[in-house]
Specification:
Strand order of the largest sheet: 1-2-4-3-5-6-7-10-9-8
CATH class: Alpha Beta
GO molecular function: feruloyl esterase activity
CATH architecture: 3-Layer(aba) Sandwich
CATH superfamily: Alpha/Beta hydrolase fold, catalytic domain
Helix content: 10-25%
Enzyme class: hydrolase
Radius of gyration: 21 Å
Number of domains: 1
Distance between the termini: 49 Å
Largest sheet: 10 strands, mixed
Number of strands: 10
Keywords: Carbohydrate metabolism, Hydrolase, Polysaccharide degradation, Secreted, Signal, Xylan degradation
CATH topology: Rossmann fold
Subcellular location: Secreted
Shape: globular
Structural class: alpha/beta
Organism: Pleomassaria siparia CBS 279.74
């Protein structure tokens, strides 16, 4: 006959195991709810909307495209990573889905992907906060839209809140940079990536955003993993920041990367520099305080403005980017994201 102490010890062990499992569970409030709209795992992406306060002083309908990977639970009860992918200026959200391939099982079998759409209320069309031609944050603040989206998605889908990521192209890459600068958003996002991203000098804008306005307020030891990919032959957002219009000069890419090396506490460390892709790519990676490759930059020779991929993307993308590459940025970005996860204590907001 089993003694009472042994029974109590066994019960205690089971109880502690359950507590441990509960602590490790990172599913959001949306777990177990009916899937919104016509979303199905591996099915067609769906156009969805939310009501937003991002257009200051008004309640505005904002649009986004949502895709569930084939591995997502049909009963919405198993948490999955989430990626926000922001398009470039004058490009609709579906263009970001098409050129990145993030909704294809070839690249992505595990992550929910959301393609938000910028507002079109001022020439030259759909765009995000942070461009010289975009409305200022006193008119439209897309950082608010990003927060609202995360709130809506985590309350309707089973999201692993320790594995939320942000990627962006061009003007959308600039917004990814602004979100990394936000002390509220960088607490919710595990890693960021900017591709051909536009980070503007304060003197090119009517408000400080990327320089004096970038105040991430990182706690001691906190890292914000950032990957930056940029072509040396980019004629839209010049690598050295000297664009066609002198009044619209952007932050030199190396200066932006160095700023994140410093913010992440890796200043003074020697980067690992690799020559890749037949000599057309120079990749620099910074590690410190036990965090490997917390800041990564790819300098791409003979590449223009766009998303690197091995397949043709049609116009205007082919002309702008000067043709396909021998590698896919989507695979690289997803691999970078997979290495980062928030500590669960960071979720205690």
């Amino acid at each position: 006959m089993t003694s009472l102490p042994r029974v109590l010890l066994a019960a205690s062990a089971i109880f502690n195991l359950l507590l441990s499992a509960q602590a490790a569970y990172t599913g959001s409030a949306g777990c177990g709810k009916a899937l919104p709209g016509a979303l199905t795992p591996g099915g067609p992406s769906q156009n969805l909307t939310i009501q937003s306060q991002s257009r200051i002083g008004s309640n505005t309908t904002r649009q986004y495209i949502a895709h569930l990977p084939e591995g997502f639970s049909a009963t919405n009860d198993k948490s999955a990573p989430l990626i926000l992918a922001f398009h470039g200026q004058q490009q609709p959200a579906y263009s970001m889905e098409r050129i990145t391939g993030l909704s294809t099982s070839f690249f992505n079998k595990d992550s929910i992907v959301i393609y938000p759409e910028g507002l079109n209320i001022q020439d030259p069309g759909q765009q995000w906060l942070g461009d010289p031609e975009a409305p200022t944050s006193s008119v439209v603040d897309d950082r608010i839209f990003a927060e609202e989206l995360l709130d809506a998605l985590t309350s309707s889908l089973c999201v692993d809140e320790t594995r939320i990521y942000v990627a962006g192209l061009s003007n959308g890459g600039g917004l990814a940079g602004l979100l990394s600068c936000s002390p509220t958003l960088n607490k919710r996002v595990a890693a960021f990536a900017g591709v051909a991203a536009a980070y503007w000098l304060d003197t090119s804008l009517t408000e400080p955003l990327f320089e004096a306005g970038c105040i991430p307020q990182l706690a001691e030891g906190k890292k914000v993993p950032f990957m930056e990919l940029h072509g040396l032959n980019d004629t839209v957002i010049a690598y050295d920041g000297n664009n066609a219009a002198p009044a619209n000069n952007s932050i030199p890419v190396t200066k932006w990367v160095d700023s994140w090396v410093e913010r992440n506490g890796c200043a003074g460390t020697t980067p690992v520099v690799e020559t890749l892709e037949g000599g057309n790519v120079t990749q620099s990676s910074w590690s410190c305080d036990g965090a490997e490759n917390v800041t990564v930059h790819r300098k791409i020779n003979l590449f223009g403005h766009g998303w690197p991929s091995t397949t043709a993307q049609g116009e205007p993308f082919e002309t702008l980017r000067l043709g396909p590459t021998t590698w896919n940025a989507t695979s690289l970005v997803l691999d970078f994201f997979s290495k980062w996860q928030l500590n669960e204590t960071a979720l205690q907001r």
